[in-house]
Amino acid sequence: MKVGILGGGQLGRMLLQAAANYDVTTYVLENDANCPAAHLCHHFTLGNIQDFDSVYNFGKQLDALTIEIEAVNVEALEKLEQEGVKVYPTPAAIRIIKNKILQKQFYQNNEIPTSEFHITQHQSDLLQHISFLPAVHKLGEGGYDGKGVQVINTEKEIESGFNAPAVLEKKVAIAKEIALIVGMNAEGKTIIYPPAEMIFDPVYNLLDYQLSPAKLEEKQLWKAQAIARKVMSGLNSPGLFAIELFIDKSGDVLVNETAPRVHNSGHHTIEANYSSQYDMLWRILLNYPLGNPDEILPSAIVNIIGAEGFTGDVVYEGLDEVLKMDNVFVHLYGKKQTKPGRKMGHVTIISSDYQDLTHKANKIKHTLKAVTL
Questions:
Q1: Residue 65 forms beta bridges with which residues?
Q2: Degrees (nearest 5) of the Cα angle 338, 342, 345?
Q3: What is the pLDDT of residues 260-319, one digit of tens each?
Q4: Could you tell me the domains of the chain?
Q5: Could you read off the pLDDT of 55-64 as tens digits, one per residue?
Q6: How much is the pLDDT for 337?
Q7: This prediction's pTM
Q8: pLDDT category, 204, cuts 50, 70, 90?
Q9: Is the dihedral of CA 271, 276, 279, 281 positive or negative?
């Protein structure tokens, strides 16, 4: 089969690494010839994944298409689907998820638990919802990795809201943030990976590290899995999805957002689970039997983020020290340039001891830095 990936970032790179295990010819469309995935595919096309003609001409030569980022031209994917190209996830599912307004309305229409919300078209609309604050303002389209999200606690902060179509979500008193990776094949059979918990730095509100399986009460796990199945039933699309959820201080489970692709919260599955999220997506795309999502051992992930104050050719400080550690796996994304906050790689740790995972995660976080000379 000839299978294309729209987007050539680190998710595409890891998807291509898993493709090497299968008899598949891979194609990538991206507007940067030096992107992380460019040299790992069989055929690379330089082009804009948001441009109709670029996506359509790229896709019409293929048997199947998938995405590694939501910001793609859905109209071109719809035409390709009509002409017989398998598009996983479906254009209909991507259309819902890529727009945060449509996504929240989807949860509401399908009676899927999520935080209360209002839709705003202009910044001035926020003045009608002062009593709703504190809340989180999310840009309808174009946001990514925390961009396009603004916390508004008081009326004084309304001026930091977006003057474009957006959704205003009630701020949740969060006890835990978890993510479930879910896969569905063309026959509608679904698998769910064990949940991952995101541990945040309380000072900077940045992801500190991630643990999987998350330590949840049995009832919370059942609720999260039931919600994930309901999301998949509503989307009715083959593919791999990441469903991010909040557990609030009262123990209720709410959907935050869904991503229609392999996801940062599933990187650990490469070493820690029998079938990684990347392997699972290839099984779905190639119409093979679904893999086993269960964990082999508990795991943690530490993201390697471009350090503050460094922009330019990347150097990895502390890499040798981290590579000497037992049961630690370093993944560098092949990005030549670093800048503050840029995702440059991740490190996975596996251990049967959660205390060992936490200890090593903290050590790695303070040892391995993406800097410049």
A1: 4, 87
A2: 85
A3: 999 999 999 999 999 999 999 999 999 999 999 999 999 999 999 999 999 999 999 999
A4: 2-87 (3.40.50.20), 116-170 (3.30.1490.20), 174-371 (3.30.470.20)
A5: 999 999 999 9
A6: 95
A7: 0.94
A8: low
A9: negative
Q: How confident is the model at residue 22 (pLDDT cuts 50, 70, 90)?
A: very high
CA distances from 72 to 78, 101, 260, 290 (A): 11, 17, 12, 27
125-162: buried (b, 16+ CB within 10 Å) or exposed (e) per residue? Answer: bbeebeebbebbbbbbeebeeeebbbebeeeeebeebb
8 A C-beta contact, residue 45 and residue 35:
no
Q: Which CA distances in Å does 238 have to 50, 184, 211? A: 22, 5, 27
Give the CA dihedral 21, 26, 29, 33, nearest 10 degrees.
70
Name residue, tokens 């925390």.
146
Residues across the chain: 373
Which amino acid appears at position 345 of this protein?
A: G
pLDDT(199) > 80: yes
3-state secondary structure the chain: CEEEEECCCHHHHHHHHHHCCCCCEEEEEECCCCCCCHHHCCEEEECCCCCHHHHHHHHCCCCEEEECCCCCCHHHHHHHHHCCCEECCCHHHHHHHHCHHHHHHHHHHCCCCECCEEEECCHHHHHHHHHHCCEEEEECCCCECCECEEEECCHHHHHHCCCCCEEEEECCCEEEEEEEEEEECCCCCEEECCCEEEEECCCCCCEEEEEECCCCCHHHHHHHHHHHHHHHHHHCCCEEEEEEEEEECCCCEEEEEEECCCCHHHCCHHHHECCCHHHHHHHHHCCCCCCCCCECCCEEEEEEEECCCCCEECEEECHHHHHCCCCEEEEECCCCEECCCCEEEEEEEECCCHHHHHHHHHHHHHHCEEECC
Sign of CA dihedral 245, 287, 272, 266: negative
